[in-house]
Amino acid sequence: MAHDERASGARIVDRDAGRRSVHHLIRHPGTPLVLLTIAAAVIVIGTFAPWLRSGSTTRSSYDLLGLMSRLGIAPQGFVSTLVRWWPLVPLLATSAVVSAWWRWTSVAVAAAIVSVLYSGGVGTAIVVKSRSASIAIGPGPWICAIGDVAMLVAAGWLAVSNATGRGAATPAATRPDDQS
Questions:
Q1: Residue 139 carries which DSSP code?
Q2: Residues 6 or more apart whose Cβ sits within 8 Å of residue 109
Q3: CA distance 99 to 139
């Protein structure tokens, strides 16, 4: 709460200061960009976190590339194909962030949605399949899920703020100059 000191020394409490601060934060055009950036970082960190535990060994999502059929989680099929192409997830998340900072809102929203569907879909499939295979799940899929929710909120916020014109005041990141 903000306080106001009058000449008499009495302090007056401004009860609306917190509400105004939240309102300013929500309407600030850079807030969805920052949220999208943080969400993408959480997703990428989640891909490196332990996804499966077997005995004393933990395996990240990248370790699953060769283990899916041996563990009986996804011997063949759609999930197995998506896991083989898993290194695209950080690229999709990064593409969403770079596109957003360059004000390519439609590209940013599309990349964010594909990233969320990809990492969320694979994470959900692995969690569901691992229960029938009696394999312990690590925090990786849950970290990615948190990042997915935040990225989805940020992408929607970015699309709405850009559609209403509030996103236009955000300073654009400069594109690298081609020195060749």
A1: S
A2: 96, 155, 156, 158, 159
A3: 29
